[in-house]
Every structure is written in structure tokens, then in C-alpha cells.
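User: Second chain of the day. Same drill as before.
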Amino acid sequence: MALTEELLHDPRDGHIVNRDFAEYHLPVNADVPQIEVELLEERDAWANPLQAKGIGELGICGAAAAILNAIYNATGVRIRDLPATVDKVLPGLA
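Assistant: Same format as last time:
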């Protein structure tokens, strides 16, 4: 979210400009570290048919802010518009 995902809209009519993955930078398998899955023995009969819950999104909700703060600490440039790209950092360095 902080470095790759960007949905662009045409300011004239609001249509989505980047409808395909040509300009949408996606992380690939080599960009992702080894993931370890922990299964707990308790079950939640009300959650879903598998009786399981996932916490993946909850665990990364602060990651984008942490990355933007790291960019600020390294460069002194505060970015408030995601994704953080070089064209948003360079004007603040001058």
C-alpha cells in the first residue's frame, strides 16, 4: 500500500485511468519474506464454515505509516499521499 498500490482517476469525469496491471506495481514472490503460519487449536463455530479466523490485514494496518515515517526520518520529506514514489520525494529535497 505504501509503495506500490495507486488507483488513478481522471479529474475531468472520475473514470479510473489505470484499469490494468501495466502501471500497477505488484510485489512478486521474491519480494515477500518467508511466511510462517500458526494454527491455534480453538475453533469459532460462528466465524465461517472452516471455523477459523484470519488476522492478516489487522497485522499490517500500521505498515504503511511506518514506511512513510521511515522515509521522513531518512529524507526530511513528509509524504501524505500514497504510494510513496520518488517523484513525491525529490521536490522536497531541493
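The two ends are 26 Å apart (CA to CA).

User: Great, on to the next one.
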